Amino acid sequence: MTTAALSPSFGGILRSEWIKLRSLRSTFWCFLIMVVITIGLGFLLAATFRSDSELPVDAQQGIWVQVATLGIGFSQLVAAVLGALVITGEFGTGMIRSTFAAVPSRFPAIAAKGLVVGVATFVVGLVSIVITAVVTAPLLPSVGIHPDLGDGAAWLAFVGGAGYLALIALLSYSIGAIIRNSAGGIATALGLILVLPTVLQIVAGVTRATWAQNLGKFLPSDAGAQMYSYPSGATTPPDVLVLEPWQGLLVLAAWVVVLFAVASVLIKRRDA
After folding, report:
1. How many structural domains are present in the chain?
2. Distance CA 76, CA 169 (A)
3. Which domain holds residue 230?
4. Where are any strands of DSSP class E within 58-196?
5. Who contacts 183 (Cβ-Cβ below 8 Å, separation ≥6)?
6. 35 to each of 52, 93, 126, how far by Cα in Å?
7. Is residue 139 included in any domain, yes or no?
8. Helix ranges (DSSP H) in 94-232
9. Domain-embedded: residue 222
10. Is the whole model's pTM more than 0.90, yes or no?
11. pLDDT tens per residue across span 94-118
């Protein structure tokens, strides 16, 4: 009997990785925190928002989208932590050796693990955002905001927000696979998501250099933020880049693809 005949199918690997993911306590707590943060901050903004003048329809829709997606700024940190822990935890405990023994080619196991993490994060993120949008909609008319629940652009932003969280989890997952250390993987992912954009903002603010502003547009967090933005028609300086939502998606996806490719090559070459 050949080794190929003994190798599990990709569907079997997916089921195995799903069992691993949902059996981890960190998965439950990370997803619970994402839900609580998204809904809690949405309620807080809806309850405290004030406007002294009547806003145009587009601005009202933009505020509703902002209410529903406000928690993403914090949920992305949880998604990054979860993405790194999923892979670095196995390297830390040595369980990765059993995984690679069952899947000698290694790549299907790494791909299945990433797919499970990404899909699970997307579903939890989307459910959290949609719940926040629906339950806060009745609160906003009292402050002059009248959400249009049939607005396709708003729902596209909600889906984009969930997609952003999923891609951030995959970005951190790839970094964790490269570094193989929980603390190092989490620190690197958060540095890329939070610290580097802040540094570029400081440089741009001090030097007023347009290149620093434009470079920041291609960082994961800045590019990904366009995925859940609502079209507002706001004007920007002519020499400052503005990415469309689909362009932001492509930039963030490129980060994920490149890092995952590097992780895949290193996992094939290194010892478990």
Report:
1. 1
2. 8
3. 10-269
4. none
5. none
6. 31, 29, 10
7. yes
8. 95-102, 107-136, 152-179, 182-190, 196-207, 210-216, 220-225
9. yes
10. yes
11. 888 988 888 888 999 999 999 999 9
